[in-house]
Amino acid sequence: MFKSKKRPVIVTQAEHGRLSGILASLWGNDNFDRPAMNFESFVLGVTFHDRGYGLVDNAPIGEADPAEWREIQRLGIVNGFTDDPVANIIVLMHIKRLLTWMNEDEFVELAHQYIRQSLIKTDVPQSMFEWTDHITRLCDEISFNFSFEANLQKPAELYPKLDSDETVTIYHRLTDDGTIYVKPWVFSVDSYSGFITGYNANTYPDTLEPVYMPFKLLPDTD
C-alpha cells in the first residue's frame, strides 16, 4: 500500500495497478508503437503487475518486512490470475525485474521457470516481452508517484518503435491538483481524466472509508 506524502490517505496496490492499467490502455501513437501482442492481454498484465498483494493489502511501500515482501513476490509468481499466457508473462517480467534489483536469485529463477512455462503457450517471443517491460515500468512508475501524491521526477528509458535500436527518455511530473504531465507524449489521446480510490489512513484497513482521487493526464509543453 502507498501512504500519501501529503495527507492521511492510503492507496492499495490494487488501485495503483488499476491506474497503471489505464495508462497502458492509452498507450501508443505515431511516434510510440504498441507492443506486438494482443493489446487486451498487455493491458491486463500491466493492471495486475503487483498481483501478489491481493485486493486490500497492509504492506506499506518502504516499510514492509523483507521476508513479507519476498513472500508477496513469491505469491505473485505462483498465483496466476488468468489462463492468458501473455498477461501472465507481463506480470512475471515485472516481478523478475524487481527481484533482480533486490538480488533475490532464488525467486528470480522461480520467475524464469514460470515465464518459460507460459512462453510455450504463446507465439510471442521473449524479446517482445523484454521490449514491453519498459512500458510496464513507465506505467508503474507514473502510477507509483501519483499513489504517493509525490512529484518524484523519475525519468524512464524505453524503445519508441518496434524496430528501434535506441531508447528515448520519458519524463513525467505531478502537480498538486492531480495533473500528470508527460514528455514526450506516448499516448493515443490528446488528454485523459479519471480517478482512483484511496482510503482514510486513520481507519485503514479495518474500515475502508473511500477517498476520491482525480487525475488528469496531459502532455508537458514546458
Structure description:
The chain has 222 residues and is of the alpha+beta class. The chain has one domain. The protein is 41% helix and 18% strand. The protein contains six helices and seven strands, in the order ββααααααβββββ. It has helices at 13-25, 39-47, 66-78, 85-101, 105-119, 126-148; strands at residues 2-3, 9-11, 156-158, 168-174, 179-183, 192-200, 210-219. Strands 1-2-6-7-5-4-3 form a seven-stranded mixed beta sheet. A hairpin with a 4-residue loop joins strand 4 (168-174) and strand 5. Helix 2 crosses helix 4 (85-101), helix 3 (66-78) runs antiparallel to helix 4 (85-101) and helix 4 (85-101) crosses helix 6. The chain is globular and about 45 Å long. The two termini are 32 Å apart.
